Amino acid sequence: MNTILLVDDDRYVTDGLLKHIPWEDMGVRIVGTAADGAEGLSKFRELRPDFVITDIYMPTMDGFQLTEAIHAIDPHVPVVILSGYDDLANARKAVSTGIHHFLLKPPSLSEIEFVVREVLQQLNESQERDELLTSYLQQQEMVRRSMKDAFFRDLLSTRYEADELPGKRIAFMGLPESTAVQALTLSLVRSDASARREEREWQLLRFGTGNIIREMLNAGLSGHPLLTAEVLEYSDQEFVVIFLSDGAPEADRLQFILQISDAMLKNILQYMKLSVLAGLGTLRRGYHQLMGSYLESRSAVEIAEMNEWNRVYAYSEQEPHESEASKNVSVDAVRHLHDAIFQKQWQLAYELWSKLGAELAGGGVSLPVCKGVCSGIASALWTAAQASDIGEDAAGQGLEELLLRLNRSGSARQMIDWMEETVARLVARHREQQTGKRSNALVNSVIQDYIERCYHEELSLERIAANLHVNRNYLSQLFKRVTGEPFVNYLNNYRIRKAIELIGTGKYMVYEISERVGFQNSTYFSQVFKSITGYSPSEYNRL
């Protein structure tokens, strides 16, 4: 219900209006009265009525002065003048000062009802227009955000020529017609501990990470009008920040991007407790070059994975290191070692490290490269130890101390010896905690005789337990203690690895691969595939 403020120094007039006019029948309510313009202005500030009915001639402040004061606060508030003087000059002044209606005292009931209903109609029409405009602008902004997301996703996966880009669509999205682009990929490290969390908890961590990225970009870019950024949640573990540079000096731009990116990584680690692999592609001219910068950022992320986490690796800076590392260190050996560590296959990890350590100690590997490889392995060891029942003591100390010890190493030999000691300590601690050969043999039987041989069939832990003549719950707990993950997760991971092998052949459709690796429902297969790899089967095929 709309509200009215009555302002008149004649108490009889005010009482008459209150008693004889059926305000509520007209859909309005008198929210207050005032005896002069000054009091009327005070009441307006306090009560904020929808419109005002006021006399002209009053002490302290007349009706025209009151109207000007009200419109200085809110120029859209309607004001109706009541005057006891039939004065054409007053009527003209009322129109010139923005007064909506001019009524002579005493007005009839029909006159007041007509004026009030007309003012209400104007108010409601204005409110409807404002609501429609607000709704339209909100929907338009939502459409623009959705179009931007689809536009940049397409650019990350498809190569275009400059003349193939949708110019009108780019203009509608509020993007510059032409710009330089640069991709920053932030890949969240989902450790074994976070992988065991409920999916909802992981999504909350991911949501919080996205907020940190956007808030820091909004705050940081506010002082750089020539640099803007778009953020894509590209997969379950990957964010892609696309920097758009409109004439910013190259040195200033790169320095700023590296600074704000490093700050983001520190905040994500501090508040979300998540490590990040970060890679920055080179600056490219034009939207159609974005895919090239993104692929470079992915290459830099791969280097980050093998070196120190939670810092930004720029592609142009990492190419020489990558080339140097590939000449002296087997990338596959490092990858296999990381996989064994995060799967907590400690004996295998020790064997793989022994081979890699011998390769590093063989000579020809520079100290910086050796430090990079060992830092990545030390980070993986520390993270896996915290996520298991081995604990921090087995790793010897905290992650910062581990990395500090590595950085203080004066030679590759000294570093390799220390790594040998650390890995050996973890393996020994793991052996101590095993329940015996029977437990390992039972789990090995599940893995070798059922998962690895029959993964393409319909498998259940109940059926396997019955075949092995053991209790289903006991087998479930034992499997998780020995392997570090539930039976279903282990089975799904194995099936997806087999699916990746089939995808690589290029011979099968998605539904055929789904059936061949033991999934009866291709939709469920795609969901599991994406949750593990970060890509759908069709997307993975295009990598």
UniProtKB/TrEMBL annotation:
Classification via Gene3D superfamilies: 3.40.50.2300, Homeodomain-like
Pfam families to which the protein is assigned, alphabetical: HTH_18, Response_reg
Stretches assigned to the Response regulatory domain: 3-120
Residue ranges occupied by any HTH araC/xylS-type domain in the UniProt entry: 445-543
UniProt keyword DNA-binding present: yes
Keyword Secreted: no
Modified residues (4-aspartylphosphate): 55
SMART domains for this protein: HTH_ARAC, REC
UniProt keyword annotations, A-Z: DNA-binding, Phosphoprotein, Transcription, Transcription regulation
Domain of life: Bacteria
Classification via PANTHER family: ARAC-FAMILY TRANSCRIPTIONAL REGULATOR, HTH-TYPE TRANSCRIPTIONAL REGULATOR EXSA
Name of this protein: Response regulator
